[in-house]
Amino acid sequence: MIWTDLWGWELEPEDNGQITVRCGCFVRIVEVEEFHAYEPSAYVWDEGWTCFDGAGVEFYVSTSGNVWLEPENKEVGMIYAPNARKVEYMPDMCEM
Fold it and tell me: Structure pTM?
């Protein structure tokens, strides 16, 4: 389970349809294409936006702050916020 203090992040009008994301050691700006609401029947478990970078690479940016590379559906980063923190929790073997 991954926790982030970006949970519930929203795209604001002053963002001009752009989201800054961090993928590995790179920070890039992606352009928002379409918003996807939470809809399990369409396999959308975390609402967010379909976005494209300047090279036309497709990403899905969720409201929880996670960035997914599409169509591979692979998590590659998170929304870039200098003061954000991300903590990964791994359960003990006895909890499984």
Answer: 0.70
